[in-house]
Amino acid sequence: MSIVSVNLLENSYDIHISSGNLPRLGELCSPLGCSSRVALITNPIVNGYYGDAVRTSLQQAGCHVTTIEIPDGEEHKNLSTLSMVYDQLIEAGLDRKSSIVALGGGVVGDLAGFAAATYLRGIPFVQIPTTLLAQVDSSVGGKTAVDHPRGKNLIGAFYQPKLVLIDAETLTTLPLREFRAGMAEVIKYGVALDPVFFEYLEANAERIVAMDRECLTTVIRRCCELKAQVVELDEKEAGLRAVLNYGHTLGHAFETLCGYREMVHGEAVAIGMTLASRISATLELCSRQDAERIEALLHRFGLSTTIPDADRQQLIHAIATDKKSRGGTINFIANQGIGHFTVIPRTPDELLTLCGL
Length: 357
Ligand SMILES: NC(=O)c1ccc[n+]([C@@H]2O[C@H](COP(=O)([O-])OP(=O)(O)OC[C@H]3O[C@@H](n4cnc5c(N)ncnc54)[C@H](O)[C@@H]3O)[C@@H](O)[C@H]2O)c1
Hints:
Layout: E1 2-6, E2 13-18, H1 25-29, E3 37-42, H2 44-60, E4 64-69, H3 79-91, E5 99-104, H4 106-118, E6 125-129, H5 132-138, E7 143-148, E8 151-158, E9 163-167, H6 176-193, H7 195-209, H8 213-233, H9 248-258, H10 265-282, H11 288-300, H12 312-321, E10 325-326, E11 329-335, E12 341-346, H13 348-354
Parallel strand pairs: 2-9, 3-4, 3-5, 5-6, 6-9
Antiparallel strand pairs: 1-2, 7-8, 10-11, 11-12
The protein binds nicotinamide-adenine-dinucleotide (NAD).
């Protein structure tokens, strides 16, 4: 079992990573005071695969468990689902000593985390992420939120979990498309923050695709370490944490224009990273060969780097309305070589010109 610590003074916590560790949940929760009443928030798909293992482990540790299922899909990460969750938390009699366990991907984790942040002004919560994206990104760092009809993640809070338990074994049931989407975020860490990790991904791509457990846990652990380092320096996203948006600015614009159903988030990030590396090459922040290596690695994980057709004016509008735009200028994250980043302030129009669009 690998343990990555996130050091945030009184909000510190550990991330436990291994393969087959779900049955250890109860014993890990007990010392954290999560041992009385627990609401397990999940969705029907993940509950079907892993709900029993989690419930059994919690019950063996003496917890009384109430399961709350939310419907599957981003379209349910909203205030009406949250309201239903509050109803069930009250109905089940959860008090301030009770806790919430989130079992699922980023949708479940974000919503359950926000419920934990706000119910009775905040009760302890535990993340058990079951998608690759959630294991390497959304479950670590304490960003919780629901969507509003006017935009994604508009209603939320910074609220750290007490524990993150990652079982790489859960990835075996994940649809291939979701696994690949998670790999886009994994590659992002290598390109923006760690040249050695990028080389590790190049050297082990086939083993990772084949779900080699040792490789998977190594990959997840390194991503969690990198994310923890960034979050420790910038918990509330005042500056540095923006590096985690590498590939996201242009990716989001395509995601918006192509429709969220057409393209899953990680596929959009792969497009965004391809364009970010081309911009970096044009500005001679990296070589053309570096940009080609980044695209080649994305391909090896089944991610397309073909830029979808989109209207230039609509793209400019989508980039400008992104919340990271300040007075018409974007603090764009570019890669310096491979494994380092730099911030370049540019208008949306300049960014598109730089990547040849
Ligand atoms: N809080 C953050 O810092 C942060 C960061 C990045 C993304 N996010 C959020 O994360 C969400 C996306 O998360 P996601 O990509 O995990 O999507 P998701 O939660 O919708 O999960 C994707 C699909 O996989 C299914 N699934 C989950 N685990 C499974 C398993 N082990 N086996 C089989 N099926 C499984 C889910 O039911 C769902 O159908 C978005 O809402 C995004 O805003 C949050």
